[in-house]
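Memo to structure team: turn this sequence into structure tokens by end of day. - J.P.
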Amino acid sequence: MKNINKIASLLPKDHYLCFKRDGGLLKYCLYGEVYTRLLWKLFNVGLTTFVMLDTQTGSFIPVKEAELFSTSICSYFVEKKGSAQRTSNRLIEHSDNILKFIKTHNSPTLFHERAEIFIDELKTFIAYHIAVKLGTDFLASKYLSVKPTPEIKKTYAFLEHANKYTDHISPTVTTYFIKLGVSGLLPEELLSLKKYTHKQKSAKSERSLIFISGEKYVFPTSQTKQLYSILQPTTSQKNKQLTTVIKGNSVCKGFAKGKARLIISFDEISEILDGDIIVTQSIRPQHYSYMSKVAAIVTDEGGVLSHAAIIAREKNIPCIVGTRNGTNTITNGALVEVDANKGEVRVIQYKK
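Reply from structure team:
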């Protein structure tokens, strides 16, 4: 068994939770390969590390590297003429290819015949999607808050169009992998199988992954708790109470006080009560019908033109986005104050 402490010691000390959706082991593994390999090849920038615990806990990336990546990819789109349009067009092209493949390979047998081609196509899509999404958010927060030039507006328009056009691909792929019964496999396991059986797939579903400079390390779930404590030493209730203020970007001003409603999976959205302050990774279109109940919105991700920002301004709901660690710091039921005039979320009291 690999020495998890030795490998974890090679990781940066500033990881934050970037995904908390159950996308399946296979898809998360592809994200790790893209972040630490393919993005470097396509854009000459990426991450050195990517960590996935079990698919319910989530994935982690280093803060400073993520900020550098966002800045670099935004500069690439702004400074290199035509790059935003070319990247956006390629993202849309790969999106169409994925949907076409899913439509024409809707059984395990058909999928297996061209699985390697689909995996390569999906990794390329993920790379362009990451670049466009982060480029869009960073461009909006840095340039659109002041008077943007016509060229900046044009650059943003290309990226935003591609981002919206392809926003549904990731959940579609997740559903596709689940339907085929392959979401719990590693790519090499998937490609080595000549015949699928649900027994084989389910037996391997939960594992933890660490990517360091493109090298992949796989750990059994028995070590997930240990790895989580290494990555997030402040997740105990005692230490959480030391972190009382979370900062982000205000996208709709206002002030609210109430109980935090932590939304990790879509199933939990129905638990929202009137006056709750929703704390989630990001707002999806499926959440819209529930937003009239909330007193404020706090998200880990997003920028001034994210789904959360748009619906907050439509309904005049105080909203702070881009906190990075909101869902990992605020506990469900905690009493919080959201000061969207300052971009601060203050935890008054954690639920006992």
